[in-house]
Design brief:
4 strands; Alpha-Beta Plaits; alpha+beta; 4-stranded antiparallel β-sheet
């Protein structure tokens, strides 16, 4: 039996509002990121779907270290375990 994980996480990134578009593009350049919403006040919701927890913390560090990012924080993290051999079986 081979078990795999899928980590689904959401982050809120607060940026200086005048840099919202530029930072959003830089975040989307990071693999496995999606931005479902932003606000004029400079808040960006980021969703990550990854295979391990280390990627989540690495992505937070990368985003938090971008110029003009004020803070990045984790809001939600869920781990789903699945057996690749069981897929398609009843």
């Amino acid at each position: 039996m081979t078990l795999h994980e899928v980590h689904t996480s959401s982050l809120i990134v607060h940026v200086k509002p005048q840099y919202l578009a530029a930072i959003s593009q830089q975040i989307l350049a990071i693999p496995n990121t999606e931005i479902p919403a932003t606000s004029e006040e400079g808040k960006i919701i980021v969703v990550l779907e990854t295979e391990n927890q280390g990627y989540v913390t690495d992505a937070i560090d990368k985003i938090n270290n971008l110029d003009h990012v004020l803070i990045t924080f984790l809001v939600y993290h869920h781990i789903e375990h699945y057996d690749t051999h069981a897929e398609g079986k009843l």
